Amino acid sequence: MPTSRRTFAAAAVAALVLPLSACGSGGDGGGSADASGKVEGDITFQTWNLRANFKDYFEGLIADFEKKYPGTHVKWVDQPGEGYADKISADAAGGTLPDVVNVSPDLVAPLAKAGLALDLDKAAGQYEKEYLEGAWASHRIPGTDGTYAFPWYLNTGPLFYNKSLFEKAGLDPEQPPKTYDEVFDAALKIADKTGGEVATLANVPTIEDFGRYGVPLMNKEGTAFAFNDAKGVALLTRYKELYDAKALDPQALTATPESSGKKFLTGAVAMNPGSALDLANFKKQAPSLYKNIGITDQITSTGHVNMYVMGLMVNAQSGRKPAAVAFAHYVTDAAHQMSFAQQVAIFPSTAGSLDDPYFTKEDGTDETRVRVAAAKSLKDAVNYTPVLFSEQMKTELRNEVAKALQGKQSPEEALDNAVKACDRLLQQQG
């Protein structure tokens, strides 16, 4: 989502599923899941593209941990965003994974399957209640037991809409659509009133859209995808209706967050996800849009918005598990997540933190308007992207969706083909 990508690069990076040469059936890879014992020794902590902007924060955090636990030493390494998945894959295959690793759910899945991610339900289950239920659950892998990373920071973003465009189409600008069906109805009205000059949406449906629409994405065993059911077909059919009416931007098939943002900025699109940074940009570059900006929750027909999650995984083969678990918990506890959230536009995954006035009270600034709106929706948010859904799978889905929108195949055929392709890739992950 543009929100996360612009405000905090790592938060919305969709990483490749790792082509690990290591194999295993999950669990702790033959290493003990027991992380009890004295917290001592040298450990390595790896982050994902954070040193440039947060060097002082992490150096202070590490110094405080080492002071709390005399006899420990934390070596911090930071990897660039580019090639991060490949770096972890190489370390996993070579037996050189750090003790504590910054991961997203899709990155931790192959590591857990290879027996390289410590099962925290066994090793640190006493901490589960400290985190939001949805955040802790986000690092579980379908078809396996266990939780394989501490939840760290969360991100989401509200949806911006252009009140003047809604008003011109005869829609109530103070009552924006909340569900997909409401958006589709509003979009068709706006396209009709403007002769197809103004689209409401600028992006084709992604796996998160199917999730927010209430489509089952996988079977419970995690062995096959299921988004080609009747509800999934209904969603894509509606998108096809929008595309034909130009209520979905004609260039949605090749849209990027940047191109969608520009369309919204110029009034060619009525709704678009964004962040506080976007509001500042509107104020400077498009004052009339800024004056008419509306902020609402992400569209969802389930009542739960999508969230992006980052986590800290403990290497199951670490020789210093007590220190590694203690440090991963220390970084992700309520106090440290709160201090980190006050430095950057992310949100803590710890229970109760989102009730802090920092996330509930507006002070009239654009930054707090967006922060409060996003924080409110995060309390019961869900990570809709299946942890086993790789970049290749996202590409397969996007390609089949494009064919359906262009009329080259039916929505049902498109989703059947996408599921077949994704199931094939899933088996290759094996």
TrEMBL record:
PANTHER family for this protein: ARABINOSE-BINDING PROTEIN-RELATED (PTHR43649), POLYGALACTURONAN_RHAMNOGALACTURONAN-BINDING PROTEIN YTCQ (PTHR43649:SF33)
Protein's organism: Streptomyces ardesiacus
SUPFAM superfamilies from the UniProt entry: Periplasmic binding protein-like II (SSF53850)
Gene3D superfamilies: Periplasmic binding protein-like II (3.40.190.10)
Keywords from the named record: Cell membrane, Lipoprotein, Membrane, Palmitate, Signal
Protein name according to UniProt: ABC transporter substrate-binding protein
Extent of the signal sequence: 1-24
CDD domains: PBP2_TMBP_like
Entry keyword RNA-binding: no
